[in-house]
Amino acid sequence: MKHSLLLLSMLAFFSFFTAEVAAQDWPQWRGPASNNHAATNAQAPLRWDITSSSDLAWKTQIPGRGHSTPCVVQDSIYLTTADTDAGTQSVLKLDRISGRLVDQWVIHRGTLPAQIHPHNSHASPSPAFADNRLFVAFHTDDAIWVTALTREGRELWKRKVSDFAPVAFQFGYGASPIVEDDLVIVAAEYDGAASGLYALDAATGNQVWKVPRPANLNFASPIVTTISGKRQILLAGADMICAYEPRTGKELWRSDTSTEAICGTVVWDEHHIMVSGGNPKAGVWCIGNDGSGAPLWEHPVRCYEQSLLAIKDYVFAAADNGVVYCWRSQDGKEMWKKRLFGGGISASPMLVGNRMYIASEDGDVYVVTASPEGFNLLAENPSGDSIFATPVAIDDRMLIRTGVGPAENRQEYLIAIGKK
């Protein structure tokens, strides 16, 4: 009887632990709820010193370079990287607890684009995970390719999604794949005939549908959410904001607002949809989420590479020039603004509880209260010499992909801020 009780207690403990871990997985770009909000029970540190062993759980050297955020699932962390000297694009697997580099799987070799933007990388799209499959997208061999892998790195399928050979600007690629049910959604937008939004069967890689997009260079990642009880793919760029039905790709509505080139992902709250962009027109745009596409307000603030961060009734922006804004989403009223740093930001702000974490390209992570009541800087944490990837708050740790050293010879690390 005692043994039975002990066994039941152990099973209950492990069931609880598994549920807690699963609740805090970070399966794809912008997290499980697609809004860059950490789990409600996540406990990210407020202040840290990366030279202190008490603040740094682990620090793992990353081969090559990339701007993808970590994908955290069960006991593993997955990350993409590219080595320009070796001409490879790879997936890395790290142990979630210790940070140990478990394996590296080369996906492409010798087919890197000849040119990309100096602020881009050959491994910028973040991985996505669903149903024990890992999906990674790369711009390589003048095309967008998606590969499906098992958790142990066995290749299940590899598919060319579309041609991708921009003519006007060779800036590379950055859109992350998104998994919705049994579909992998991929944006491949450029100034060519194959520009489109694609859906692949997650089990086989076969194309399920394609929505043509304008021949226009765009870098935005699609996102899937539920608005007014309806699942929708949201995507901005090419001077519009669009919603598509995930199963068929049918256009649900569009709003003729925004700008040509957008890097950020659409955000939303209960009644509003918002996005930022930077070329050729810089701005932040808000429309209603009632399907009419009616513009509500806009501000001429440049937030090009990073996404906005929305909470109930308010939206925050960390602009390219280092100024942080808070607007009321109802009417765009400015609640406050404050210069935080000298400029240069690629990572998107993320929410942990009532704190907003903002990483600059200079390697600093600022913690600001996510409140409309006024600007409140809680901490400034030097975390390396450069940060381009969005940090991820998971469990009681903050995962940061950081670079150390001069730009021409920079070494990347994935560091875990928190207790060992």
UniProtKB/TrEMBL annotation:
The keyword Signal applies. It comes from Novipirellula galeiformis. Residues 125-337 form the Pyrrolo-quinoline quinone repeat domain. Keywords: Signal. Residues 1-23 form the signal peptide. This is Outer membrane biogenesis protein BamB. The keyword Signal applies. It holds the Pfam family PQQ_2. SMART domains: PQQ. SUPFAM superfamilies: Quinoprotein alcohol dehydrogenase-like (SSF50998). It comes from the Bacteria.
